Prior knowledge:
Layout: E1 11-15, E2 18-23, E3 31-37, E4 45-51, E5 56-58, E6 64-67, E7 72-75, E8 82-86, E9 99-103, E10 106-112, E11 118-122, E12 136-137, E13 147-154, E14 160-166, E15 172-181, E16 184-192
Antiparallel strand pairs: 1-2, 2-3, 3-4, 5-6, 6-7, 7-8, 9-10, 10-11, 11-12, 13-14, 14-15, 15-16
Amino acid sequence: DFLPAQAGPARLTLSGRFLYAAAPSCGSSPGRVWSIDTRTVPPTIASYEQGKRSGIAAGFDGVLYALGPDSVVALTPGSLQKKDYYQPGEGKLGSGTPVVFAWEHREWVGVFTEDSRILVLDSRSLGGASHHAPAFRSEPLPGAPAIESLTTARDARGVRWIYATTGGTEGKITAFRVEEKDGNPVLQLAWESPPLVRPSTP
């Protein structure tokens, strides 16, 4: 066990030789991402503070994308050094796990905001030169419900989809088709499920 005793329940992610654990805040202890190098003896351990957040996702090149206190950060594999970040120019990020997906031979990162918008970030430069510019920023979901999670899939025709799940007694799953505009992805609303009681992430 490489987590301290006061750490909360952790979400584990294995990427290459590194095992990551995202432990949410617990009492006075802030949330942190922890990494352990599975090939070193004794094991090499590193961590990065996330505040009250705990979402992480590994990129295809091993870079770890994590929610910081007020930003999405790109962390170097294993050592968890911050190499890039995106910080909203307005509004606040939601607390769900980022999604990483391939589209048009490039890697993108999807996150959502507290005001029910979905953001798509270019993994090569999460927020551009200003660190505040996403590649795409959607309008709020119909009715502006609170988004609880995102997931992504590619269908048999090669079309990339993003699914947003909203919770509560009348939650929904909303599907967006990823399309292209001026070389960047845009999300086109395709369909909504009927109201569902606390739907699970598809």
